[in-house]
Design brief:
54% of the residues lie in helices and 8% in strands. It is built from ten helices and three strands.
Amino acid sequence: MKEKPSYYAIIPAQVRYAKELTPNAKLLYAEITALAQKDGSCWASNKYFSELYNVSTVTISRWISSLVDNSFIIRKIVYKKGTKEIDKRYLQLSQEGINNNDNTPINKIVKDNNTSINNTSINNISIRELKFINDVSLFDYDKNILDSFTDYWTEKNKSGTKMKFELQQTWETKRRLKTWATNQKKWDKPKSNKKTMSKIHQHIQKNLNVKAKLLKQLKQ
């Protein structure tokens, strides 16, 4: 039976603010918590995640490795009985991803995650922001364009409940990003200062006229 995400995901502060992780790796961590069983184990394959996020399995492997390297998850291998041939791979949540000041066992956190709907978590703006950044990062544009686009459109309203792009009456990321990239080229284009150039030309011409006059006087 194919695993399906539960109602919401968890991104603890340690993961959310980890500078060593990319936004996509953080989003993947949230997905792993949503798929985790009661013991904190997730059996979803790289292929499953790659199809879910529309990226290659190599990219998924890279995100998982960054989570493993920073001790947020543990990667475990199950070998076929009596051989060294890999049968299955599963991921287990690590205590590093849980707030050290929170004494709630990880089993209870995962159990609550799988059995209850928490509207606050569903609407968590941090998760929606990571999802938006992930969606934008899949487009083939210069990194500076993608960064400026996400910085602008993820700006929060005064109450901190919605981002700027969520306040638009209509929204299609592909169209908006295309327009943004076009405008970015216009904004980055150096502007010529006609008045300044005109003064420079006038100054050069004046010097040439003076030199010509002096040469004429010397010949006389």
